[in-house]
Design goal:
A: two-stranded antiparallel ribbon; 2 strands; globular; B: about 325 residues; Rossmann fold; Alpha-Beta Plaits
């Protein structure tokens, strides 16, 4: 443990918290396995949907089935990562109602850090498993020009997508401070967002497409990088470098989400209780 | 310097009534939970903050601990505006909310304490001895390894107190800490709190509607009623002001006419057509023995009991005496 008189660093504090979360979850291996399977199953159903759509139309927008699998694999991996890290942000209404938020507010640690570490749910990694599996199949079936660029993009995209989706979770969590009773609305927003990321931006009519690319930039999480990896032209008028923009977009969305979160907490201090 | 200083502290909530889908029919009403409250609490003071449910106790506590912002007036904790300096204040503050848990329900108590030590960034050399001290004095040893959700209320409450005091806070804030506990558990908890706060020279703010908590733990009282501060002083002063009355309940052998002429008493109720009568008296004016003797002179007493003044009654009388 090191010097017993030393103050633990912030990193050590988080490590202790995380280790205890993992211990707590592995205490019940059967329930853990079921949860993991359930989370994987949800994403497997989404995958089946993609396959079903493409078995009826060979090419949707500019994607064929193999390309769609790549998009889906990237999106599901990213979503799975985000869900494991930040998925518990959708329980904020419960934290508010049960008063758990109040106990968090009287501890010397940022509330967001406490919520993120309060429930690291390993079982949600089930969607990562499905995502990575789909990705592996897609890589085998697509004709990919293997360049250093496409390799970097393949590694970076799920991580950037994870960052992007967790920022959306955070934004959705922040909105809860205003909509304590509208948990379902935000959840539709969120899971709907993931649903959109699994498809080409081209299947949506223009206003919706603008919303999907710029309003909730989920396309950056999977579709645009996949187009870049496959060397496809992408949506009309979109420059090719957009496929590389995911990390920058993710960081930008994080900043916006953090602002919203701070406002949400301020709103709670002003109106809640 | 004061540990807590509230000046014209006010907090109102606006409540919407009506249905969300009929916005025009909705009305807004403003409720003042805390209304123009001023007080200062110095280092080492032990203060009871009392009042009936809904009197504004919890709201004041939330404003002093950085959970809520005031809508009017100011509050300073350790000289700081608490919401803006939340984490700085939190390091020096220990809070127990009797109604909610700050422990991790699926983890053993021992792990919760370790987590809190990490959150407060306490070096092991500091928190290990403190943990050992708390385990011994709050008798946590037998259930330290058990998940919190399996603990009885009394055990959990001792765990909550240990969790709040692990970092040896200068200011201890307890919101209804003994609610739901049996008499023995309450008494043990009070004994511990009294000793711990005194030994460390800590400041105690205790919100409660249990008069015994206040009598055992607090040197000073703040009484709130409908958000307003109606009394600030010590217990003898409160009793002197409102004459905290005890009630002698006598069960008579035969129904008797109302016993309204007993010196130093007021007849508050007659039940069972005179079989049971309740006489309120102030201990400073007469004694239970004198009242009983006077009653026995006119009627045969079969049984009797004495009811201690409850805080609701004291506050009600305070409310009347303050002329509002």
């Amino acid at each position: 443990m090191g010097d017993p008189a030393a103050r633990p660093t912030t990193a050590a504090a988080y490590r202790i918290v995380l280790a205890s979360r993992v211990r707590a979850q592995l205490q019940y291996p059967v329930s853990f396995t079921f949860d993991l399977a359930q989370s994987a199953l949800t994403f497997a159903v989404g995958l089946l949907e993609v396959v079903a759509v493409f078995s009826n139309v060979t090419v949707l927008a500019d994607l064929d089935l193999d390309a769609a699998l790549l998009v889906y694999g990237l999106a599901a991996s990213g979503f799975g990562i985000a869900n494991a890290i930040a998925g518990q942000l959708d329980t904020i209404p419960t934290y508010i109602r049960a008063g758990t938020l109040e106990t968090m507010l009287v501890r010397p640690q940022p509330v967001l850090a406490q919520i993120l570490t309060s429930d690291i749910t390993l079982r949600r990694l089930g969607s990562v498993v499905i995502g990575l599996g789909t990705l592996a199949v897609a890589l085998a079936r697509n004709q990919i020009a293997w360049t250093p660029g496409s390799v970097v993009l393949l590694v970076v995209t799920p991580l950037a997508a994870g960052l992007l989706f967790s920022a959306l979770f955070l934004a959705a969590g922040a909105v809860q401070f205003w909509l304590v009773d509208a948990a379902e609305v935000t959840s539709a927003f969120l899971y709907g967002g993931n649903y959109a990321a699994g498809y080409s931006a081209g299947v949506f009519p223009l206003p919706l497409r603008l919303f999907v690319v710029f309003g909730v930039p989920v396309s950056f999480a999977a579709y645009l990088p996949a187009a870049a990896i496959l060397g496809l032209p992408g949506p009309s008028g979109a420059p090719g470098w957009l496929g590389w923009a995911a990390p920058a977009v993710a960081v930008a969305v994080w900043f916006a989400a953090m602002r919203l979160w701070a406002l949400g907490l301020r709103h709670y201090a002003g109106a809640g209780g | 310097m004061s540990v807590i200083e509230a000046s014209h502290l006010t907090r109102s909530f606006s409540r919407r009534s009506g249905r969300a889908w009929q916005p025009r029919r909705r009305t807004r009403t403003t409720v003042r939970a805390v209304d123009d409250v001023s007080f200062a609490i110095g280092p080492g003071e032990t203060v009871g903050y009392i009042g009936a449910n809904g009197a504004g106790k919890s709201t004041t506590i939330k404003m002093t601990t950085g959970i809520l912002v005031p809508t009017g007036g100011t509050v300073r904790t350790f000289g700081l505006e608490p919401v803006g300096h939340r984490t700085v204040v939190a390091r020096r503050l220990g809070v127990v909310f009797g109604q909610r848990s700050q422990l991790w329900w699926d983890l053993p108590l021992r792990d919760s304490l370790e987590l809190l030590a990490a959150i407060h960034r306490l070096p092991p050399a500091r928190w290990r001895p403190r943990e050992a001290e708390l385990v011994e004095r709050l008798e946590l040893g037998e259930f330290l390894a058990r998940p919190v959700r399996q603990l009885s209320l009394g055990q959990r409450m001792r765990g909550e107190v240990a969790a709040a005091l692990l970092h040896e806070p200068e200011l201890v804030v307890l919101d209804e800490p003994t609610v739901g506990l049996d008499v023995l558990s309450k008494e043990r908890l009070r004994t511990f709190l009294r000793a711990d706060v005194a030994a460390r020279g800590a400041t105690l703010l205790l919100a409660t509607h249990d008069m015994d908590d206040v009598e055992r733990l607090c040197g000073r009282l703040l009484v709130v009623d409908h958000g307003r501060l109606v009394y600030d002083g010590d217990i003898p002063g409160l009793v002197a002001r409102v004459g905290a009355r005890r009630v002698l309940v006598v069960d008579l052998v035969e129904p008797a006419p109302p016993l309204d002429a007993v010196p130093g008493t007021e007849l508050v109720a007659v039940e069972g057509s005179g079989l049971r009568q309740r006489l309120a008296f102030s201990p400073s004016a007469t004694t239970a023995a004198a009242v009983l003797a006077a009653v026995s002179a006119v009627a045969a007493v079969r049984d009797l009991s004495i009811e201690e003044p409850d805080i609701e009654d004291v506050v009600r009388r305070l409310y009347l005496s303050s002329g509002r």
